[in-house]
Fold Transcriptional regulator WhiB.
Amino acid sequence: MTATLYEIPGLLGASLPATGQRLPCHEVEPDTFFAESPAEVEHAKALCVGCPLQAECLAGALDRKEPWGVWGGQLVIAGVVVPRKRPRGRPRKHPRPDEVAATTAPAPAKKDQRAA
């Protein structure tokens, strides 16, 4: 198995020279940003909050069409930002009531009720 290494200007050092600030991605294992479970992906995204290179990291990943991972606080799959990682397996055939309630918008008011 081979790996391609990219030199990403601004991300090579473990800290920013001007401030000495440590980058979050250099404080944890790299596998953190390639997690399988949705909860672990959300944890990786949270690590990126406040990183001074967040925008550059995401832009670089999109330019390189990264196959997957958390880059710049966003989940990238097949070179595209996706809002969240789906859990493994098939979706439920009949969703649980709490899942339905979370995704269902309130019904519009009936015509008779609006006049009141």
In short: Residues 20-83 form one domain.
